[in-house]
Design brief:
alpha/beta; three-stranded antiparallel beta sheet; globular
Length: 444
């Protein structure tokens, strides 16, 4: 027998749930083989087709993978063991530079805009059958998208960026399809894709975004979709510039059937211009969330794209949550258009904190990157050691394993709440923990 964990169940749902519980509990380890289907069927006293159906469910949920005659095994990073398990628990007295949150001091007050939105709701209740999008939010969002050169298209509202990306992926792809993603990249996205039964192929990034040659190779090898972060890339801070956007659009024109998804979560906290790729392929989606500028708990993103993509997202949304609360939409519309946030001041504050961190590290012989956003990426020779030494010194940083597939080790330092008096002390601690490290600006 290939596994010690006693898989149980009589039906496909019970068998798949048994395996999934074992993976989540660590009783079936990543990479561990599962019994051949006929062997497990005989042991459980069920038909082999029942086990085949269970294994199919597990593949589609991103828990296991099958490699022909080599059989089935637990995925190296199964969807049931998310990258959040790699987070650092921050003890009392340790400064948290790992969370990835915006600075609460730079977020707007929500009391006034929600009071106004609630008063409007009292006058004009939103009932079943009402339009799912708040007209004021649509107008404000469309005006900003037009100003940034994003092609015209219908608009939908989702519960944040990840919700939008999930809905777009499921609107076009089927289990087994491949998605090209940035490496290092957003840990939640790297969890989501296999959970949908999709495969990931890594694309290296440098300060200016995905490398065109890597994108071309991934698409030529059969990747069905490409996800790009335009600005404030998590975790490296990369941001597309004009020349990189032109090069990527040229690559994409050679693969017009690619599903292109762009994530612009850095909207209104970044002082770099947007260079969108939208429209370079037939199927595309462009997503903007409110989380970084107005607060993570608002859970709202605006999505535009080609008519087929947006129509599919809206249709599936109607069968599930129906719509994102119009009360929340009205509040965000007021924030977006009412000058509640001095976006230039916010972007300047984050920019100054990144520059201070990168400059202080450079003085100590430690390279780091972060063109935009809330984080700085520091290559290290040993992630575990670096994170442990920094924790001992009173600083919590995020291990790079949460964000990377093939890229070499690194740590992510969130600088959004960095105080002036902490710059030198944190730089000393990082230099002591990691030492001078040579860095390839492609994070590979």
């Amino acid at each position: 027998m290939l596994v010690e964990y006693p898989i149980s169940g009589r039906g496909a749902a019970e068998i798949s749930a048994s395996v999934e519980r074992a993976v989540a509990a660590g009783e079936l380890a990543p990479g561990q083989p599962l019994p051949p289907m006929r062997e497990l069927a005989e042991r459980l006293g069920v038909n082999a087709n029942t086990v085949a159906a269970a294994y199919r469910v597990l593949r589609e949920r991103g828990v296991i993978e099958t490699a022909g005659r080599r059989g089935s095994r637990v995925r190296a990073k199964p969807a049931t063991t998310g990258r959040e398990q790699l987070r650092v628990d921050v003890p009392e007295g340790v400064r948290d530079m790992a969370a990835g949150n915006p600075d609460p001091a730079l977020l707007p007050s929500l009391a006034g805009v929600f009071a106004e939105a609630a008063a409007q709701a009292d006058r004009e209740p939103v009932l079943y059958g009402a339009a799912p999008e708040e007209p004021g939010l649509v107008r404000r969002a469309r005006a900003d998208l037009d100003a940034d050169g994003v092609p015209d298209g219908p608009l939908a509202v989702t519960s944040g960026s990840l919700d939008a990306i999930e809905r777009v992926l499921t609107a076009h792809l089927k289990p087994g399809d491949t998605v090209a993603v940035e490496d290092p990249g957003w840990g939640s996205l790297l969890d989501l894709i296999p959970a949908l039964g999709l495969r990931t192929v890594p694309v290296r990034v440098d300060d200016h975004g995905p490398l065109p040659d890597d994108v071309r190779a991934a698409l030529a090898a059969g990747a069905h979709a490409l996800i790009v972060t335009d600005r404030a890339q998590n975790p490296t801070g990369a941001a597309l510039n004009a020349s990189r956007a032109r090069a990527l659009r040229e690559v994409l024109r050679g693969f017009p059937r690619t599903l292109l998804i762009e994530d612009d979560h850095g909207h209104r906290i970044v002082d770099l211009p947007l260079f969108p790729l939208a429209g370079a392929t037939r199927s595309w989606a462009f997503v903007r969330s409110a989380a970084k500028a107005y607060g993570p708990d608002l859970r709202l993103a605006v999505l535009t794209g080609d008519p087929v993509t947006v129509d599919r997202v809206r249709g599936r949304q109607r069968l599930g949550p129906g719509w994102v609360s119009r009360l929340v939409q009205r509040a965000v519309a007021r924030l977006w258009s009412g000058g509640a946030v001095d976006t230039r001041a916010v972007a300047a504050a984050y920019g100054a904190r990144r520059a201070a961190r990168i400059g202080a590290l450079a003085e100590r012989g430690v390279p780091a990157t972060g063109r935009s956003g809330l984080n700085v990426w520091v290559p290290v020779p040993d992630e575990t050691g670096a994170v442990a030494r920094l924790l001992h010194a009173g600083w919590a940083v995020a291990p790079g394993a949460r964000f990377r597939m093939s890229a070499p080790p690194g740590v992510r330092v969130t600088v959004s709440t960095l105080r002036e008096g902490e710059v030198e002390r944190l730089a000393d601690a990082i230099a002591e923990a990691v030492g001078p490290v040579g860095v390839d600006r492609r994070y590979v």
